[in-house]
Amino acid sequence: MLKPFFEPSSVAVIGASRDPAKLGYAVLNNLVEGGYVQKGAVYPINPKADEILGLAAFASVLDVPADIDLAVIVIPYTYVPAALRVCGEKGIPAAIVISAGFREAGMEGLERERELIAIAKECDIRLIGPNCLGVIDTITPMNASFSAGTPPSGPMSFMSQSGALGTAILDWAQAGRLGLAKFVSLGNKADVSEIDLLEAWADDPNTNVIMIYTEGLPDGQEFMRVAREVTRKKPVVAIKSGVTDSGSRAVSSHTGSLAGSEQAYQAAFRQAGVLRAQTMEELFDVALAMGYQPLLQGDRIGIVTNAGGPGILATDALERAGMSLARFELETMQALEEFLPGAASAANPVDVLGDARADRYKFALEKVAQDPNVDGLLVVLTPQAMTEIRQTATDIGELAKRIDKPVIASFMGEAVVSQGIDILTEYGVPNYSFPERAATAYKAMSRYLQIKNRPLSEYVSFDVDKQATQDLFDSVREAERLSIGDAEAKAILEAYGLNPPQSRLAATPSEAVEIASQIGFPVVLKIASPDILHKTDVGGVKVDLRNGEELRDAFELMTYRAQRYLPEARLWGCQVQEMAPPGGLEVLVGMNRDPQFGPLVTFGLGGIYVETLKDVTFRVAPFTVRDAEMMLAEIRAHALLDGVRGQPPVDKKAIVNTLLRIGQLVTDFPEITELDINPLIVYPQGQGAIAIDMRLVLSE
Amino acid sequence: MLKPFFEPSSVAVIGASRDPAKLGYAVLNNLVEGGYVQKGAVYPINPKADEILGLAAFASVLDVPADIDLAVIVIPYTYVPAALRVCGEKGIPAAIVISAGFREAGMEGLERERELIAIAKECDIRLIGPNCLGVIDTITPMNASFSAGTPPSGPMSFMSQSGALGTAILDWAQAGRLGLAKFVSLGNKADVSEIDLLEAWADDPNTNVIMIYTEGLPDGQEFMRVAREVTRKKPVVAIKSGVTDSGSRAVSSHTGSLAGSEQAYQAAFRQAGVLRAQTMEELFDVALAMGYQPLLQGDRIGIVTNAGGPGILATDALERAGMSLARFELETMQALEEFLPGAASAANPVDVLGDARADRYKFALEKVAQDPNVDGLLVVLTPQAMTEIRQTATDIGELAKRIDKPVIASFMGEAVVSQGIDILTEYGVPNYSFPERAATAYKAMSRYLQIKNRPLSEYVSFDVDKQATQDLFDSVREAERLSIGDAEAKAILEAYGLNPPQSRLAATPSEAVEIASQIGFPVVLKIASPDILHKTDVGGVKVDLRNGEELRDAFELMTYRAQRYLPEARLWGCQVQEMAPPGGLEVLVGMNRDPQFGPLVTFGLGGIYVETLKDVTFRVAPFTVRDAEMMLAEIRAHALLDGVRGQPPVDKKAIVNTLLRIGQLVTDFPEITELDINPLIVYPQGQGAIAIDMRLVLSE
Hints:
homodimer, 700 residues, Rossmann fold, seven-stranded mixed sheet, 30 strands, flat
């Protein structure tokens, strides 16, 4: 659907210029120099010129005596809407608006951008930009941007919300650091967004890895839906900027958009299988390895080095990254021992020694690559007196071409070593100046293996009483309230198949005693009033009441106090509630609504684990059974769920069940803005959980 | 003291060769080409040559008709000991042994190295190596190594246990990435170690920052003593390899030395003020900024960028690094607003916009630099169409020269951008390809500010009864035991001024009741036997005994069970112990002995915090009051010490007091190999702490 942006049969440059200082010149020049003129027709549109850069110019696209597939618009912003409309008249299906002066330029600009969007919709034009650098496809080839030169071709495709960052990326590419298949500067994303490109690039045979720089996604849920599918086909690596407080302030002053929370992005990327880079360097390091090397099929890495120290650094780094050092077959060790000098190490990391020439590296690499216990190779090289840098690099490249395991290198140094790095680059073997960065790349490859092979976990849907819940919300709203707790919350829990403690409302002390004898002592008593939110503050909660007398006393005192301190409050009586049996673990299930992603469900242990240690994890609802299970494993104190100090393991299924049903509740009712079950008391395996207290807040 | 290694008046090369393939040629050639021949006399020692590289050769150092300051030995290992002895005869005070074939080559090599050490001692020769690359001093200048070429001069001095890593570093230096004052390849560290060089470089006016790569320090306590002083004068940045399990196995197979624990290194570096780099990249990034730029005097950074996206990345990275974004004076903002175009951002991060030429950068930088709320500057640049890369770099360099605040840059890109980076390098303005790395550098600078200015915290020494403790240890040993607990441990706690619960030994139930009525019920009863280590396993501990009857019953049952199940055990009776009052927080104080650093004291919260969350911190004893205080702040759950959920803050002073006194105990008695106070119950502020249980183990 986005084909005209990447493989148009013809391109018009609206605002093409003869003045090399103008962007309209740069774009046209890139279409010419980047090789597109050999591929398709290029039409400079400029009412004041007959010919530019050897191409016949036209006053308007309407004058062009042929179909136009793509329009690139580089004219002052005031003229852009009209120009786009003319494109519509001509039947052009796609336009890249490079011009700035829209949403990023204040209220007036925002108006103009809305006009643009309306025209595009009306005329059925897909639109990239405005306020962008343009689009490059190195395979077509087509450079429809004002970049300084065209980057070399390669297996990586990059979409960037920041055009400036794009210039830096292209500059690295031109220095030979990476090769690009497609590059899109997204600009203001008036129409085409990350989601469209993800979908388009998923099946692009020239793209091995998709890279994203974003400051905020337009539709979180839709992004997740698409990304979940795409990440089964190829790796997606993304960096989201504006994650800290200062950073998100900077984003909103830069893009004017409301930032989703850091937690929501973290959860969403994880759920969708998007690899998240924490730094730009990581983005490149990770994408390089995945773009140029085959899939890693396990986590066992073999290291070959000509230096002990760097070998240890590489070992440390791989272990810290959660990878493991391959244990070689006896056969491999014997072969290495025979061929290598006595002082060398035939075990992993293989140290071919400082005086190793290319032949020793080659032999060791072949043996290590053949070992069935090795999933990937890391070659470390320092430039010592005898080191044959170029030949070693060539041998590594040839090996990498032949085998289907990834090979990555850490040639350390620059002045002498760069001649080797250049050869590695030609062969598509990524080189990392430091072994720690190579380890980061392997870690991401290993994570991607899990993502690609993750089981298709289902979205379960429980049989719940949605109507009862809707009725309750309606009646609460009718009573002009937004906050829900206690008996009402209990009804919701029951409607969604969850297990609140038994409880009933008592109007009098005697009724309370009657209820308690049915439920069984001890009980909890709570003041029941729609007007008292913080019950404990007015002595409105009393636990562990063991007999009728204690219960009567509590009822009367509680009612008296409420009447005295909050005379305006409506009193419904007191709620008599089953006291949860001892021996359970307190956990918390919560939800708040993220502006970008919607319902963000929290899980953590109760009490100080949440409050002090902030030991919680998040998922965007709806989520799968597997996601819910992963939440349990992700908290730092997860061992407590398995039982420590002789405690039995808790009923994890009951927690998963609660998470999934709450996920369904908050998905069913977008009007729930906040929700907390605190605590959910979980009992030993098979014994379930009790949702002691729930509190919900509805949107205005 | 090490002056002859860096500024010798004359150098002899023992094993100087005419064959360019030999190391003996490379070393001599570096002395010549590196400029040393213009500075001092160079004597090639080779019995088969009259002259090498234009220098008169001698058969032996004894034939040289002048004093020799430094000998560089590059001959086969079998001849090295004899050659060193001859150096002794000649009265040469310093030798660099480049030859390999010593400790690193197995048992025989180790013997040879010991011989070398003995000769050096006997002849009063200081020795660097063996098995090393050599020594370079770019100021003298002197290159007494077999490096490929001489690195450019600069403010960074580097010592490396790995020679191979040294070659990589020199290769980066030669590519212009850094400038070195001194470089030492330490090799096997038979004599001169990291400690000697730290001491020597502390006062070297040409060294602004000391960099260390080590696989293991020879004497942990001595290193700390020296480093503590040196880090007040200049920053020391170190990387320790072999920190993971696999890594430390690789170290010991590489160097044959016993690795200290990761925790000990972490604690020791922190105590000594050594900045620890986690990766090689971090080592360089951090050292570059501290080597070339003035001290950072606060943590408020001003960012100037020509790109919104990278500005946000920089903001995120600084905030994540714990730095803060400077808030400008109104004056600064006004000046920026006046000069910059309307769409620019005059607040921090200052966005001079994509079309900024050098003048806009210059103006903004001047204003930001002048702002009194700015402690350091970060300049972000992407190569956009109008960007004047060279002029902007020059302006940044000139500004940096003039002001006494650090200025660092992140010019992003390479093909076009490198021309600017080269200019920045000339001016000594470090450039980081990614803003996140610049933030890492600032973080380290800010940490160093704290290190440099840290208060001189005293090592307190308490008045304790050391003799009583010694007597007790003696008697335990006499009884052929190594494990100490209960009443004996209580005596030690008392001797060291700590507060165990009141307790006394009762031989009979009646005696127990008498003791309990003095102490006050409730009490704890414990079986007393030197042969029962795990009392709870035999029902030998009973808590919360409320009256005489319960106490008698417990005494009899406990004694009966012990006699029945452990008939061999000697029974001393039962210990009657004060029951700690409720309302305290359980913490843990422990110690184990690290092979490199000695007594490593642990602090953490009790129970699951230690067991499940591993939330503990470490210090090498002896440590200061400030160190003990920092331990309390370092645990993740530290907020619990300040009181959460309405709890009062605990008596931190009592914990600090315990840590210090235990630190003194384990320093006084190296024979204590393990120690645990678990739990130490800490009460609210001013109410002290009780060391409920202590267990010690003595060395064999």
